Every structure is written in structure tokens, then in C-alpha cells.
Amino acid sequence: MIHPWQAATWTRLCTLGERLPHALLFAGPPGLGKRDLAEALAARLLCDAPAADGHACGQCTPCQWRLSGNHPDLQRLIPAADEATAGSDDGGADGGKAKSAQIVIEQVRALQEGLEVSAHHHRRAVIVDPAEAMNVFTANALLKLLEEPPADCFFVLVSSAPRRLLPTLRSRCQQWSFSAPDSAALARWSAARDAGAAELLALCGGLPLAAERLAAQGGKAFHERFVRDLGQLPDGDVLRLAGQWESWLKSKEAIAAGFGMVMLVDWLQRWVADLVSVRLGGRVRFFPARSTQLQALAKRCSIAAASNCYNEFVRIRRVAQHPLNARLMLEDMLMRYARTFTGSQR
């Protein structure tokens, strides 16, 4: 599937024809459909008769193999945890042992063995997503394949954090950078969706698929509560709100939606980023519907205080994945936020 904002990139890829490099790196923020484009490109490469628009025909034998999930010349290197999530509704449990969130070296070794066998058709394609899920040993194993690739084998690496890849690995790939769609494309996307989509799109930094995923997880209700609760500060009871948020994060709805400490800290960080922007005379990026509230708050804090609060949240974000005590972390964050403002009771 090619998304509207990828049309120009897709056309460029198709016009390369036989000049297409054997290794590509699709790099950019999550939520732009890089994996979708990689799948479409792999389908095109394996198809016997691509259509005039470059897409796979969907009718030939290789396309039928691919659509059935059994194409022997299409390989995907993804973490076992992602495979489990996409599989059965038991979460991929295997005797209670959690699946790996990394692409492990055994997967690359299995790929190497598979590529030693002649292709079943005329080309082969390998998708690696996310490429940053490889540790140094796995990356070095893949690097050997990229340095001496099998004939007619194309690799597409997908990454939201390309700087985490080995420099030598990046140097073997032609990098294609992806960025958020322009304002016109985002306006068209929002207009075709339910009310509230524009707010979630802004919260996600203009990344449409990230906004879609958030909406599907009940993000609208979470967003509304977040803004409503934050409206109690800086003059409200910080400790009371911290307790409410601890219960919120432990609720069935939050757990089912994957709304946890990391996302909450991220939203707080974005809220304060908007506060800093307003204080500096800039625009509200993540919470545009709350511009009036943010402008009122900006009058109560200095540029230095707002900037310090943002930097503190950046540091907190680094440990939010595994907080030693969630309640204490929430209390600490909210007190730091409240202290940013002059005339507050906290």
C-alpha cells in the first residue's frame, strides 16, 4: 500500500528500474508508512508483470505466492516479539517466556543459509524492520551479506533511528529519508476522518499513521483526560493528581491500549515543548487546540524555567520505561512542572 504522501518517492523508486541499488535504507520517524512502502517495493521486484503505476499485478504466480504468505524469495527479518503481536491473540506466549524485541543473529544465519539456495524465481527481496533492533553482532552478520550480496537479491532496511545503526552498515545502503507530509496533505487526511483526528495528528507531530494507531487505541479519550487533568495545575493538588494518574495507568483500559508511563511522559514533554515555544513567541505544535491555555500559562513562567522543565522531562523520559516507583516518578514530574510557574501554590 502506497500512502498519498509517498507518491513522489514511489515514482522515483520505480523509474530507477535496473539501476535500483541492491540495498536501501528507508529512514524517518515512525508513523509514515516506511514498512508499507518497503513491502510494495518488494512486491514489485518479485512480480512478473508490474502494472503501469509500478505496483505488483497481484495475478501472476509470484504475486499469488506472496499474497498467500508463502513466497520463498521474500524474507523478513523482524523481532520475534513483533511476529508474536501480529500472530495469535495469546500474545505469542511460549511457555511464559517473553519474545525477543531484537533481531537476533540466528535469524541472519538462517537468512544466509536460505540465500545460498538458488532463487525459486528471478529475484529475491529481504526486508529488515526495524533495522535498529539488531545488536552489533547481528548487524555485522548482515553487513557481510550486504558487502557480497547474492545475485538479484535486494535488501530494504527500515529504520526510525538510523543513527543507531553501524556506520559501516549505513554506508552499504542508499538512504532514502522520509519526513512528515506537508500541511495540505495533512489537511486532506484530517478532513477524511472523524472529529478529533486533527488533535491526535498534531499530538503525533504530523505523522498520519501514528495518529491512526493512537486513535485505534482509544487515544481520543486519553488525550481529553490528559488535557483536562493538566488543567488543574499549576495551582491544584499535585499529589492527588499523581495518585489519580497512577490508578489511570493501572486501569484495564490503559493497559489494553498500551498507554503507559512512557507515553504519558512523552505527552508531558510535548506539552512543555509547546509552552517553551509560546514563551519564545513561536507556534503551538502539539496541542494547537489548547493555544489559549498555553498562552495563559506562558505568562506565568520565564523562558529559563520552561526550558529547564523541558530538559528535566527529557532526562525523565530516558528512564520512564522501567521506573523504580511509578507513584514517586509521577509526583516528581508534576511537582517539577508546577514549580515552573510563578504564583503557583506548589
TrEMBL record:
GO terms for cellular component: DNA polymerase III complex. GO terms for molecular function: 3'-5' exonuclease activity; DNA-directed DNA polymerase activity. It holds the Pfam family DNA_pol3_delta2. GO terms for biological process: DNA-templated DNA replication. This is DNA polymerase III subunit delta. It comes from Pseudothauera lacus.
